[in-house]
Structures are given as C-alpha cells and as structure tokens.
Amino acid sequence: MKQNQSIYLDNAATTQMDEQVLEAMMPYLTSYYGNPSSKHSIGWSTRMAVELARNRIATLLNVKSKSIIFTSGGTESNNMAIYTALRDFGCDHIITSKVEHHAVLHSVEHYAEQFKIGVSYVKLDKDGVADQNDFSRLLEIKTAHDKKCLVTLMHANNETGNFTEIRWISSLCKKYNAIFHCDCVQTIGHYPLNLPTEGIQMASASAHKFHGPKGVGFLYVHEDLQPSALIYGGGQERGHRAGTENVASIVGMAEALQLSYKNYSKHRELISGLKNALASNLRDAFSSIVINSCGHALYSVLSVSFPYIENIEFLLIQLNQKGICVSGGSACSGGDSSHVMKELGRAGSYETIRFSFSKYNTQDEIKSVLEAMKDLLPALISQNSNQN
Ligand code: PLP
C-alpha cells in the first residue's frame, strides 16, 4: 500500500515533514553547501542560516539565542542535559520518574552509575503523573542531606500524553536550588511553550515530532548555566557540541517550529476534534475499554487499553492490512511491553493502542478507523474472554 493511502495515526512516533519545511531546506541541500565554520563567503552564507534558525527558535520560545544548542535530536539532548548537570552543575542526586522515555531512564541509570550518585523515583498518581506531595518530600529530604538535585521530568508523556504540572515542579526546584530538566520532545511544536515563564532550566526538543526533519533537535540551557561538551571535536556550538552543523535540517527545524506556532490554535482545534470523536465512539462501541489519556493530556495523543486481547501485535498487523498505522504503547519500545503501562497497572490483562494525530488527519479517517476496530475487535475480545 502506498504511504499516502495509509491512515497514519502514529504521530507521537514521528510526523510527516511539511512541504514548506522541505522547501526551506532545499537551498541548503543544493546551492548553499558551505561549512558554517569556513572563513569565506560560501561558509558565511550557511553560518548566517544556522544563526538565523537559532534566533527564530529562541524568539518563539522567548529565550536568548545563545541558550539553544543544536543536537541530533531528543535522545542526544536528554543525554547531554543529564550528563552535564552531573559533571558541570554540581548535581549529586537525580529525581525522576519511572514513566520517562528510555532516552531519560537509561541515561539516568548509566550516568548515575558513572558518577556514583543516587536516584529517587517520584511516586505517580493514577494517571502516571508525578505526585506533587511526594516530589516535594523527596526534594526536601535530599536538600536537607546537602544534595543538589537534578530533576528530570517530562512535559507530556509520549504514551499517554498526560501532562506534568511543570510550573509547580519548577517553583519547587527554585525553592530547593535544584536544576530542572524537562523532556519536552512531545510538546515543543505542539504547545505554546514559553520556557522562562515555565521556569525550566533545560529543555529537550526534536524536529521530527513537529513536521520537521529527523535527526535534528536542540537542547535549551538557561544562559546562566554553561555546559561543557558531550561530544568533543571542532568546538562548534560555542564549544557545547562539536561537529559540522546539519545546516539544512537546522533550517528545516526552525521553519517547522515557526509554522507550528503560527497555526497552533487552528491545528489544536482540528486535532482535538479528531481525538474526542475517536475517544467517545470507542467508548460507545467497547464499554470495557480504559482511556489512559486523562483530562489534562496533550490534544494529539489518545491511549486506549483493551481488556482480554492477548496478542496486540496481531491486531496491529490486521489494522495495518487495512492501511491503518497505529502503535501499541510507544514506537520505541521495540516489541517489549511498555514500562509506562506497567506503571499504570495495565500490564497483564490489558493491551494498549496509542492513537496519535496530526494536522494531516481527517474526520473521515477517524470513521474508517472506528469501522475497522468494530470489525476486528469483537472477535479478538470474545475469543480471549471466553477462554478466561
Ligand atoms: N523523549 C520523548 C518523550 C520522546 O517521545 C522521544 C521519541 O519518541 C524521545 C525523547 C527521543 O527523541 P528522538 O527520536 O529525537 O531521539
């Protein structure tokens, strides 16, 4: 089946690049090929493009240009934030949660071992969101024991879409002199984030989540913090991240972010309508489902758990045969059962589908998905519930 005939509802995994983004990138894949570090006019033209992109991104997020460090995407940004907080900013304890993306969880485990420091996992509420009392308690205890904490909590969860109350988290971090890193990979480009107002000191973003190119992202680091490099070499990105800049992709990322801010209200309304229609129709058709995306969730993610389906992979294959692309939990778990669903208590008797929407989806597509679900699910559910 051709990709453009598919119904693509896996936009939390990645998004289709906007044609306008490709257009903005093309000159830097063809005519403007200079190395931005070269001291001649061919190099200066790409240096200007990189700095203009940095400036556009910084302006949208209401931060200084020098606080944006270009990276290869969300995974690198998360690694850089965690590593540099321990090495450069004096953090000697980490507070995080068990529902973070693996790019945070595995980095935390690895760097905590390397620096021989402790990690506390904040308790989660029924929606998998950091419990505010427990978070406050942890910070207070660790600070009383002379620990400087790195707090790394995501803005919206990539499997459920559920939001962390970041303003509340950041105000406590300020009170206890902790550094707050926020994995905003699912929200930057989907939410009008104003980083200083939110009180975030480090934020990770990835262009392919908001209709930009893959393999490019950035880490915002507040200008008062000066991280040394994670990747060493030629001293690019003012010594924070070496390697010749991915000029075309950086230009594309800035264009994609600008477009997303410009059209935010229109797209939010469209996408919320799709999500709400699918959620309410699924609820009507299958009374036993559990919707994991709570009332305070990203408008583009709908996570639904179904009881009594043993083999979700089979359902995903059948949906795919009908041209419908969705994901079971997250796309990055590589077939392993989801650590997020385990924390939510959905492991075992439930199987989960994550529907995630974009500006390119339509209400007609939602109708087709519903028909397909009504067609496929009853057989699967009754087979297994009869066996139980
Ligand atoms: N953090 C979150 C919340 C994500 O959803 C993802 C990607 O799925 C990442 C980090 C990793 O980003 P990237 O694919 O750009 O490395």
Structure notes:
α2 runs parallel beside α8 (247-262) and α3 (74-87) packs parallel to α4. This protein folds into two domains: 3-15 and 264-387, Aspartate Aminotransferase, domain 1 (Alpha-Beta Complex); 19-262, Aspartate Aminotransferase, domain 2 (3-Layer(aba) Sandwich), CATH 3.40.640. The protein has 388 residues and is of the alpha/beta class. The relative contact order is 0.16. It has helices at residues 19-25, 41-61, 74-87, 102-115, 132-144, 166-175, 195-198, 247-262, 264-285, 312-321, 339-343, 363-387; strands at residues 7-8, 68-71, 93-96, 118-121, 149-154, 179-183, 202-206, 217-221, 290-291, 301-307, 324-325, 350-356. It contains twelve helices and twelve strands. It is globular and about 65 Å long. The mean pLDDT is 94. It has a seven-stranded mixed beta sheet, with helices on both faces. α6 (166-175) links the parallel β5 and β6. The structure holds pyridoxal-5'-phosphate. Residues 73-75, 78, 101, 103, 154, 158, 183, 185-186, 206, 217, 332 line the site of pyridoxal-5'-phosphate.
